[in-house]
Amino acid sequence: MSDIMVPVALADRPYDIIIGAGLLRRAADYLGPLSKGRRLVIVADANVTVHLEHLQAALDGAGIANHAIIIPSGEASKSWNGLAKLCDDLIALGVERSDHIVALGGGVVGDLVGFASAILKRGCAFVQIPTTLLADVDSSVGGKTAINTRAGKNLIGQFHQPALVLIDPEVLSTLPSRQMRAGYAEVIKYGLIDDAAFFDWCTQNGAQLLAGDSAAQVHAIHRSVRAKAAIVAADERETRGVRALLNLGHTFGHALEAEAGFSDALLHGEAVAAGMALAFDYSVRRGICPAADAAQVRGHLAEIGLPHSLLSAGTKASGAALTAHMAHDKKATGGRVPFILARGIGASYVEADVNLADVAAFLDEAE
Ligand code: GLY
Fold first, then answer.
1. Which of 174, 196, 217 is the last residue of a domain?
2. Which tens digits make up the pLDDT trace of 247-273?
3. Is the separation of the CB atoms in 205 and 216 below 8 Å?
């Protein structure tokens, strides 16, 4: 099967997302022209050294000089210290502004390398090679880059688009099943936002996808990145009320993650799954969404083994405690938090007029 190409049509910095089984071993075909005869620096998560070996073998085989920097896996790398160390290492290696730094790993590596590339020498080019389903369908596309600070996640960052995204679904075979499910929450999200037919497809094919069916994985990744590419092209900096739709489930989910101390007790995708179920339930409470649609969302999440309620997300906090986290959401403006609600499956919209006291009352009654 030939590689699939999805263009991200940004006027001044268009780029392509390439999807193909076994792409890592053919990466030189795409990275060769970008290396322009210079050494490629790859920054890889310590968890993906097997994939790094395959990538380096492909580059060596094509005569492309390369050097790898390994960073510790886990959110702690996305810190001021992690950023400083990476920038110092890149400078020591003589990386120039026109070089392409390659990020190989999940969301942590992509966000960190993307941000380092945005500021190094006032902006270098970079390439995303995601190795988790969540990074494939969300964080590697669209140019959101960031590190965490003591005050919260992703508070320091920059929009900086990659020059290329290479997605090889074969690397998912080594991903733990819990991580796969967490990434799958972001796949379902695209159906819930504006593509009811894709949500239907997910209900029919989600289990096979998670069991390793590569055709299902390629289809879901393709549909997801095509949807994300269109949203990013329409609203790169989340100022037009379009990109904000990608936050479906994230306002509720962020509060759940905060309660869990942003720990492995609740992965980001798991929090988003429960958050999407809560967003649909809250939409039902406001009388704008059929209860049957919310039940279908909950049902599919439960079937897949994803959290779909406060209880299944392990949260016992009060509505007041959860909405206090929401009030500090970085997307709040003038003290108001925009919520993504739904008129039904595939009919999500941005609702600016949400009273946090009403959300707190809803959460106190929710299971
Ligand atoms: N992950 C949400 C966005 O890229 O806008």
1. 174
2. 999 999 999 999 999 889 999 999 999
3. yes
Catalytic choice (160, 189, 219, 228): 228
User: Mind giving me the DSSP string for 4-38?
Assistant: EEEEE--SSS-EEEEE-TTGGGGHHHHHHHHHTTS
- Total-model pTM: 0.96
243 flagged as catalytic: yes
Catalytic choice (153, 160, 181, 186): 186
Q: Would you give the DSSP letter of residue 65?
A: -
**Looking at the structure, do residues 162 and 104 belong to the same domain, yes or no?**
yes
Which residues are within 8 A (CB) of 192 and not within 5 positions of it... i.e. 6 or more apart?
Answer: 199, 248, 276, 280, 297, 342, 345, 346, 348
Mutate to test the pocket of ligand 1, among 187, 243, 330 (most ligand atoms within 8 A of CB): 243
Q: How many domains does the chain have?
A: 2
- Dist CA 234 CA 244 (whole Å): 11
CATH code for position 229? 1.20.1090.10
Give pLDDT tens digits for 61-90: 999 999 999 999 999 999 999 999 999 999
Which residue range forms the structural domain that includes residue 150?
4-174
Is residue 43 domain-shared with residue 168, that is, in the same domain? Answer: yes
Domain shared by 184 and 303, yes or no: yes
